[in-house]
């Protein structure tokens, strides 16, 4: 007997499954509020060098003080990182005539003055992470994703060994603790450490929520489950825009996006452990208890599968042994799946976060960009619900990723003044990018067998978070060549999309239980 047959005995997809999915959607909402928080946490408002003894220029307007103190860039705006060593009063007569003597221009000596009209405070304004320190500002996101990367390996292994629910509870508790410590940070070092640990903790949510839900639903509702979970990620995207708009101070913004984890901790007590995992580990009494509860809630009082039947299922599959990440590469078909899916996950995350962390390059306000990027994901996911069931997982995965790269590449060619066209292309690219992310979560959970599913998700999530960690640093390449970041995102998306064609199709195929099902 297959586990899918057991689910049919308990009523298939009923009230029990709906309750589980509803509860598991709560932590999914919270994930993007942290994963994309860098857009607001580390936002850099317009700034210029602090001007010493400014009170001496009482007869000059603020604009005139800037003219004599701050050099202009070629586009006519005031420099953010340079100042004159002495006031240049002659520029009051003709401000467009900039001094040819570069020796009178120096780096900021007395700190910076920031425009607080949009943000009350960010970590950039708190610790002056601008100009020469700009790299530290971008590194904040990298530290977070390094934590997520490490957490993927840790929670992937532990959830296959100790259970999905236990590790999900641990992940949520640690997320609250480290999230609140981040909000209380008194130095950049403390923030970097606590954000890294928050990333480790949140990785458990990212890794476990979808497989735990998927392992309780039948074949016919797997796609629905994956898409539903993904839609709540988009809801979190939009709520982040709202939270950031209402809370402009970075300490309180961290509190605002961490607080909802408490609700998830409370609600998670009603979610049972995965019966698939319990059977795979030989814990048939617990599995039988949860299946009885499932049957009763779904109105199937005639459920008559005995614990002995579950014991035979576990014995037949011989799945009670110990498995590790090395097991993903021991057999030829599983090795090919692991290598190819790892490349695809890296490309999906690298291009997604590359687009998601560039909210100021498309002519919209940062809050509106975040909201629009969130809302466009929902119709993209509705379309994917149809496509993955019609054309299959493999074709959907490959083409959404390739088209993401095409849109990124198109915005390299479109001139900056065409802001409306650039915005439309960027929104389309974001839609394709999110469609690729939606598909890969569903696809990967179907590629790996139950005994290795969390190890597989941990390994692929490790590579995805590696892509997420590198994505913000690629923005620094604009100092080498203005378009190098976009070219990099485009190239990686197209290449990884091509690799997706090498993966097997899983449409309407039962979830594999053991390695022999894969081979």
Q: Topology, pairings included?
A:
Elements: H1 3-9, H2 15-35, H3 38-41, E1 47-49, H4 62-69, E2 82-84, E3 105-107, E4 112-114, H5 123-127, H6 134-162, H7 164-183, H8 188-214, H9 222-246, H10 250-258, H11 260-267, H12 275-280, H13 284-297, H14 307-317, H15 332-356, H16 366-375, H17 377-390, H18 393-413, H19 419-447, H20 453-474, H21 484-499, H22 515-518
Antiparallel strand pairs: 1-4, 2-3
Helix pairs in contact: 2-8, 2-9, 2-11, 6-7, 6-8, 6-20, 7-8, 7-10, 7-11, 8-9, 8-20, 9-16, 9-17, 9-19, 13-14, 15-18, 15-19, 15-20, 15-21, 17-18, 17-19, 18-19, 18-21, 19-20
Summarize the structure.
This protein has 519 residues and is mainly alpha-helical. The chain is built from 22 helices and 4 strands.
Textual characterization of the structure:
This protein has helices at residues 3-9, 15-35, 38-41, 62-69, 123-127, 134-162, 164-183, 188-214, 222-246, 250-258, 260-267, 275-280, 284-297, 307-317, 332-356, 366-375, 377-390, 393-413, 419-447, 453-474, 484-499, 515-518; strands at 47-49, 82-84, 105-107, 112-114. The chain has 3 domains: 1-37 and 131-318, Up-down Bundle (Growth Hormone, Chain: A); 47-114, no CATH class; 325-518, Growth Hormone, Chain: A, CATH 1.20.1250.20. The protein is elongated. The mean pLDDT is 87. The chain contains 22 helices and 4 strands. With 519 residues, the protein is mainly alpha-helical. The protein has a two-stranded antiparallel sheet. Helix 15 packs parallel to helix 20 (453-474). The two termini are 20 Å apart.
């Amino acid at each position: 007997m297959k586990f899918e047959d057991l689910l049919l005995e308990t009523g298939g997809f009923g009230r029990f499954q709906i309750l589980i999915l509803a509860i598991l959607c709560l932590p999914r909402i919270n994930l993007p509020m942290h994963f994309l928080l860098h857009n607001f946490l580390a936002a850099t408002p317009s700034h210029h060098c602090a001007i010493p003894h400014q009170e001496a220029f009482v007869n000059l307007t603020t604009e005139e003080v800037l003219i004599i103190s701050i050099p202009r860039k070629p586009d006519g705006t005031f420099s953010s990182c340079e100042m004159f060593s002495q006031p240049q009063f002659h520029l009051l007569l003709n401000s467009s005539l900039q001094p040819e003597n570069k020796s009178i221009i120096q780096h900021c000596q007395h700190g910076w003055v920031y425009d607080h009209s949009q943000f009350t405070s960010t970590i950039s304004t708190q610790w002056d992470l601008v100009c020469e320190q700009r790299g530290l500002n971008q590194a904040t996101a990298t530290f977070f994703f390094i934590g997520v990367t490490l957490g993927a390996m840790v929670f992937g292994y532990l959830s296959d060994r100790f259970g999905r629910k236990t590790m999900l509870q641990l992940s949520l508790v640690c997320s609250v603790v480290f999230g609140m410590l981040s909000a209380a940070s008194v130095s950049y070092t403390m923030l970097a450490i606590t954000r890294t640990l928050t990333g480790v903790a949140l990785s458990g949510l990212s890794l476990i929520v979808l497989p735990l839900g998927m392992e309780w639903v039948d074949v016919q509702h797997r796609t629905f489950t994956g898409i539903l979970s993904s839609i709540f990620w988009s809801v979190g995207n939009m709520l982040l825009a709202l939270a950031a708009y209402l809370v402009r101070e970075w300490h309180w913004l961290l509190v605002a996006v961490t607080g909802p984890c408490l609700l998830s901790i409370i609600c998670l007590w009603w979610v049972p452990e995965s019966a698939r995992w319990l059977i795979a580990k030989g814990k048939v009494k617990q599995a039988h208890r949860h299946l009885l509860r499932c049957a009763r809630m779904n109105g199937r009082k005639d459920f008559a599968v005995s614990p002995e039947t579950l014991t035979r299922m576990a014995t037949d599959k011989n799945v009670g042994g110990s498995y590790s990440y090395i097991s993903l590469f021991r057999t030829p078909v599983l090795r090919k799946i692991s290598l190819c899916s790892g490349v695809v996950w890296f490309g999906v995350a690298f291009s997604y976060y590359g687009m998601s962390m560039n909210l100021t390059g498309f002519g919209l306000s940062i809050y509106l960009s975040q909201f629009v990027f969130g809302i466009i994901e929902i119709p993209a996911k509705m379309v994917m619900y149809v496509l993955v069931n019609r054309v299959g997982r493999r074709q959907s995965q490959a083409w959404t990723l390739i088209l993401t790269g095409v849109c990124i590449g198109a915005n390299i060619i479109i001139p900056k003044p065409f802001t409306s066209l650039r915005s439309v292309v960027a929104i389309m690219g974001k839609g394709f990018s999110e469609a690729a992310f939606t598909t890969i979560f569903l696809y990967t959970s179907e590629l790996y067998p139950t005994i290795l599913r969390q190890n597989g998700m941990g390994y692929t999530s490790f590579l995805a978070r590696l892509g997420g960690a590198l994505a913000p640093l690629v923005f620094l390449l604009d100092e080498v060549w203005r378009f190098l970041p976009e070219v990099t995102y485009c190239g990686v998306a197209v290449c990884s999309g091509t690799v997706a064609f090498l993966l097997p199709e899983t449409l309407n195929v039962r979830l594999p239980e053991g390695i022999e099902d894969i081979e």
